[in-house]
């Protein structure tokens, strides 16, 4: 055990700049310092942050570098991030049931969310990549961005503790937490669409004035891939969502899941308009003109 502690890769001595170094080493040190400043955090051991930025491909090509790669820090950061997010949701939304909290947590710590946050922080620009990973677009790859964000969280936790890490997470995920105030549709448009389709099916079945009332909806949106393009490291997907064979929305994204979400969000707007029309028609036929006027103005 003594030997392990004495040779830990994250010791300050291992990351100190030696007396005789080339300019690239000094430049790397300055770059790490600039990133810490850019992120609004401080590190006693910048070697931790350097490790959090080091892709395995770089470590493999530079065995002489004692820094290692970000995989262990990513493992730690994933757990720390999940705990911070879970505790925050528990405290901020005391009335939310367990299922909703689980849904929100999953959204906040998923790959697309974390890669989007990492991209907003420009973390890809500071990634230390091997030549092959660099040439194939590794700086913009969703998986790399997700992992480097988690690794930075892990590094900050080891260096500064839980309070500073929590402040960083809440600050960098602020816009994602704000989205919760907009309701579950913003986080899970596919689930919201499923619920609305079921509701609309019932509304149409009960409506004698709507032309589709005799053909109730199936209650199951279907997603169809329209196109897939781009190189392997930067794929683009185009998807449409169909309900009873009718295309009600299209969306695009770097993954099928993201494209389906965009399509579902577009279909939600279409179906909500139809629901308002049904409500307005019922109000007019029943003589409730105030309701009709209110629905017509929304």
Give a verbal description of the structure.
It is built from 16 helices and 3 strands. It is mostly helical. It is 62% helix and 8% strand. The protein is elongated. It has a 3-stranded antiparallel beta sheet with strand order 1-2-3, covered by helices on one side. The chain has 2 domains: 2-182, Ribonuclease iii, N-terminal Endonuclease Domain, Chain A, CATH 1.10.1520.10; 188-297, Double Stranded RNA Binding Domain (2-Layer Sandwich), CATH 3.30.160.20. Strand 2 (236-243) and strand 3 (246-253) form a beta hairpin. Helix 6 crosses helix 11 and helix 10 (142-160) packs antiparallel against helix 11 (162-172).
Please give the order of strands in the largest beta sheet. 1-2-3
Give the CATH H-level superfamily of the largest domain.
Ribonuclease III domain
Main sheet properties: 3 strands, antiparallel
Strand/helix succession: HHHHHHHHHHHHHHEEEHH
Instruction: Quote the beta fraction.
Output: 5-15%
Write down the CATH class of the largest domain: Mainly Alpha
Judging from the principal axes of the Cα atoms, what is the shape? elongated
Give the N-terminus to C-terminus distance in angstroms: 69 Å
Mean pLDDT: 80
Oligomer: single chain
Estimated helix fraction: 55-70%
Number of helices: 16
Mind telling me which CATH architecture of the largest domain this is?
Orthogonal Bundle
Short note summarizing the structure:
The chain is mainly α and 298 residues long. The protein is 62% helix and 8% strand. The protein is elongated, with a radius of gyration of 25 Å.
